[in-house]
Amino acid sequence: MTIEVGRLCVKIAGRDAGKECLIIDVIDDTFVMVDGNTRRRKCNIKHLEVLPKIAKLKAKATHEDVAKALKELGFNVEVKHVAKPKKKVAKKVATSKQTLKEKVVAKVKAKTIKTEKPKKDVKSKPKAVKKPAKPKTEKKAKN
Asked: Is 55 within 8 Å of 70 (Cβ atoms)?
């Protein structure tokens, strides 16, 4: 049977083995995109058992379209968890340019105060003190 968009298949390998799916996109000679009771993902054709039924689907159909097509073919569709969209949190913005300028100036002053080190008074180093020389001892003469 030919591999085409809307063809009913059963996964025979992997985590989703034994579950029904529809081909929603043909990627190349060996890979297709599947969706249905399986996870929506790229799948090797060798991991699919192609069945004779075909559903009317557009390429890259949504999961809702695939679920409707599977129900029309007489298969129950598992409900997938749908993630809730994240709420955007508004950032607080300074009310005027003057306050922005004040903040920048305060940061610059804080940095310069922290980084500046007080200068040490440079004094001349004390001269090295010479140690007193050891008294020389007389050598004994040979007899």
From this structure: yes
Identify the architecture of domain 7-72 in CATH: Roll (2.30)
Contact 72, 55 (CB under 8 A): yes
Q: What beta strand segments (E) does the chain contain?
A: 7-11, 20-26, 31-36, 41-44, 48-54
Specify the pLDDT at position 108. Answer: 79
Residue 122: predicted pLDDT? 58
How many helices and strands (H and E) does the chain possess? Answer: 2, 5
**d(Cα 24, Cα 7) in Å, to the nearest integer?**
8
Q: Which residue has the higher pLDDT, 38 or 141?
A: 38
Q: Provide DSSP, 29-56.
A: SSEEEEEESS-SEEEEGGGEEEEEEE--
Domain residue spans in the chain? 7-72
> With b meaning 16 or more CB within 10 Å and e meaning fewer, what string describes 22-58?
bbbbeeeeeebbbbbbbeeeebebebbeeeeebbebe
- pLDDT, tens digit, for every residue of 26-79? 999 999 999 999 999 999 999 999 999 999 999 889 989 999 999 999 988 877
